[in-house]
Write a structure and sequence with these properties.
Blueprint (H helix, E strand, L loop, with lengths): L2 E3 L2 E6 L7 E7 L9 H15 L2 H8 L3 H14 L2 H17 L17 H11 L2 H15 L17 H6 L9 E6 L2 E6 H4 L1 H17 L3 H16 L2 H13 L4 E6 L17 E7 L4 H16 L17 E12 L10 E4 L3 H7 L2 E5 H11 L2 H6 L2 H7 L3 H15 L14 H5 L3 H22 L5 H18 L7 H15 L3 E6 L2 E6 L4 H18 L2 H11 L6 H7 L7 E4 L2 E5 L2 E7 L17
Helix pairs in contact: 1-9, 3-4, 3-5, 3-6, 5-6, 9-10, 10-11, 17-19, 17-20, 19-20, 19-21, 19-22, 20-21, 21-23
Amino acid sequence: MNNTSSEITYIPYQQHDEPARRAALTKVEFSLKGFSDKDIQVLGHLSEAVNLMNPIYRDQFEPKMPSVKRAVASLIQVANPAQQISLKNYLTILTLQNSPFALLPRKNHLAGLTKDDLRSLVQKAGNASLKADYEIVEPFLLDSLALSDKAGFYPPDMTEEEWKALGDDANIVNASFSRDSGKVTKQLNEEKYRVALQPVIKHLRAAREHTSHPEFRVYLDSKIEELSFGTSESRRIADYMWIRHGSPIDVVLSTALEVYLDNWKNARGSAAGVVMVDDPAAKTLLHSFTEYLPTLERTAPWRHRKMEIDPAKLPHLRFVDVLNWSGDYVNSPMTIIAQSLPNDEWVTSQIGSVNMVYRNTGKAIFSLSGNLQAEEFLPRKVFEDFREEMFEATQIHSALHELGHTTGMMDPDHQGKQARDYLEAEYSPLEEARAELFGMFAMPRLAKQGIISEKTATAGHYGMVISMINGLKFIPEQAHVKARNIMWHYLTSNGGIEEVTEDGKKKFQINLQHIDRIVEQLLGDIGNIKSAGAKDKAVALREKYCFTDPMRPDVEKRTTDFPLGRGLIFPTIKRDGDHYTSELEYPANFTDQPKFNVELLK
């Protein structure tokens, strides 16, 4: 059954050959205080545009998702009370994952009823359309299925030879491929989802009319152009205007953002949307980080550094509060806590990037598990010393992680190309490890400059230790899990993290005398692999340090009661006819959020 503790609701779920787990649902706090009526109209229209991106992501993830949702909703109507609880829980997790599959582990979750029970309910409903849907849906509810590395981006039987034959089309991020009369053909997302994007564009136009910020208006113009045509030029212009506009109200909206869903080539982006506002109180601290970035780059442990950095091209570091997000941002059990955009390396090399840390969603996530993992795996004294610092320290590490994505450069033999083009599926885990390590590399150096305290720097290291241990719960398949798995095995085998026994349990502490040197060593190795596009060395590093840890059963046992997967409930802005008011309201249930109840227009 669902159980609720204060503002947190827990939902049980099960995957084949995995322990019984539970996800946690909680509200995200947001305030409209200080916004003008025009600002509220902009926020309202942007939030609705974000909602409308979600069905596009679902179609990219698993096109059968609408059939699964319809069938389960119909079965609930004829089920007995006990069956209804199981099916409603399934529907909540289906919504939380935005698909019948989780990204971690990459498999479906189970309905909790037998085949006979489910088929009896189908007969009881006596609904012809349900019977047709159920034939498609049953394997998702009962069988052991694995999410394809190709997701919905490529024909399932597409070969390496067909990939290579695509030439330049292979790396167009906002495209997908299908098989037509035996031949693999390309289609831009903006063409494939043209009908679905029309109401998105309508809300962007409405937001454009209400905004009083001229550069943000031009950015919305460029975003409308991008969603209308999807050309590489329109995407780059939109990226440029996004970096330059300077409005405290902001939106990221794309049919092709992060590439983690494409686990075959790391080339296809997926649909996403987020509307957010700046946290002005953090500006001074964040500015000091970016000011110090050139020094960090010049002293970085890899060979090919950006020794001369144009101040105009420095990253823009921001702490933001989120009003709403959808698509790639909703893919439990992972939750995005920070992000570096745009992903176009040419744009970032010319004008910089924007690096965001999501504050209010981060606080909501922290409220779900907080310091539970730290208390379980850190020695008692270490936990007591750093518990109060942990959240802010991890937020700072997240900011530095995102800055890390902007550092380094390709070597002279690989100029003009992106590392992803050479490293393919090895790229994302390698780059995530590099960014995590860069954050660890930067924090003690910032402490020496007096920008942050030494205690905060050490707390950031311990936060990273907990992230690495959490990753040991899983077979290393997902990019972030692979990255942290490599780091854990490297740092522990080289003496940076030490095991101690307390109360009969394995706990872990940092060797503060050696950790920074060991972090720097691994960071340098990975930076050099990236700059050389050395796929063979990336494979060798992964094969040596990325493996299912013997401690996995112990980590699983000790964290069984900790929630895995986070469902964030965002508010909506109340409407009075066509006018958005200054009042927020929350849906009664997680699944009632508008983004989850929008159908894909075709």
